[in-house]
Amino acid sequence: MYQKNSTFKMNKNKIYNLDVFDFLNNKVSNESVDLIVTDPPYNLKKAEWDTFKSEKEFFDWTFAWIDKAIEKLKKNGSIYIFNTPYNSAFILQHLVSKGLIFQNWITWDKRDGLGSAKRKYSNGQETILFFTNGKQHTFNYNDIRVPYESSSRIAHAAKKGILKNGKRWFPNPNGRLCGEVWHFSSQRHKEKINGKTQKLPHLTPKPIDLIERIIKASSNENDLVMDMFLGSGTTAIACNKLNRNFIGNELNKEYFNLALQKLKEYERDTKINFGN
Ligand SMILES: C[S@@+](CC[C@H](N)C(=O)[O-])C[C@H]1O[C@@H](n2cnc3c(N)ncnc32)[C@H](O)[C@@H]1O
Question: Which of 6, 35, 40, 73 is the right S-S partner for 29, CB 3.0 to 4.6 Å?
């Protein structure tokens, strides 16, 4: 779909401290990435980096980085983009217009209501859009099975099976297939002390168990995973844990240093290329 442009040597297992466009234009070869997992600004105006002058400016910028990022995907690569449900409705249409294939609208139930809405329901979810660049994409459904909900029925079925359409069905010992509503406590919620929110080193870290689910499902060991809005480094750390290669980027120097510091906890793993 895209032309291979670049002849420069690309560094793997390295993170950069650049603007997203400098990173995508100068550090990543086209059609080189198996999986993009990214959690960009949402224009919620919670921080300077999350504030745009207008909705138009926000979407122009968002669509521009998406256009660059998808050039980096291999044929049959996958892309997951976090955002609010409202913004995701527009991002979905943009991805469809670029010829990517819609797979899932994942609703992440954060187990942490944001609070004080009195004229509408409180926002306790984020959206993760899952698209692929082809139909022969990796999807390791067995690696992300989740526990069955009705334990007594399943215990019964495990012994005797349940008759379904004339055949006896036995539950999978590793759990059921993963659906598209995900329940993971937000990092903010996990780190509360006596119910009180703590000031975290990054404003919006994602829970690593959620990122690991995406990486397990949509990549294989030694594949290359990219996140160009790395924040505190969650995607890179998850890749390191799961034996995937990564390439990442974060503009804010303080967050970049935080991600580097967290990655250094894995220093014994010589794969990582420290520095910028
Ligand atoms: C929602 S946060 C990502 C948090 C991350 N998922 C984590 O677990 O820590 C988005 C990040 O994008 C970074 N960012 C904002 N504008 C950027 C730009 N133009 N280029 C690169 N990074 C940018 C922000 O500094 C912020 O850390």
Answer: 6
Report how far ligand 1's centroid is from the alpha carbon of 33 (Å).
19
Contacts of 82 (CB under 8 A, 6+ apart): 38, 39, 40, 108, 126, 127, 128, 206
Q: How far apart are CA 84 and CA 228, in angstroms?
A: 18
Expressed in angstroms and rounded, the spacing between residue 150 Cα and the centre of ligand 1 is 39
Mean pLDDT per segment of 10 residues, for the chain of length 276 residues? 59 95 97 98 95 98 98 98 98 98 97 80 93 98 93 83 88 94 88 79 91 98 98 96 96 96 73 56
CA dist 199 and 61 (Å) reads 29
For the stretch 80-134, pLDDT in tens is 999 999 999 999 999 999 999 999 999 999 988 666 788 998 888 999 999 999 9
Residues 112 and 82: their CA atoms lie apart, in Å, by 17
pLDDT at 43: 97
CATH match of 14-138+180-264 with 3.40.50.150: yes
| Domain chopping of the chain, boundaries | 14-138+180-264, 148-177
Paired tokens of 240: 């390191």
Contact 127, 108 (CB under 8 A): yes
> Whose CA is closest to atom 17 on ligand 1?
251
Distance in angstroms (rounded) separating the CA atoms of residues 199 and 110: 18
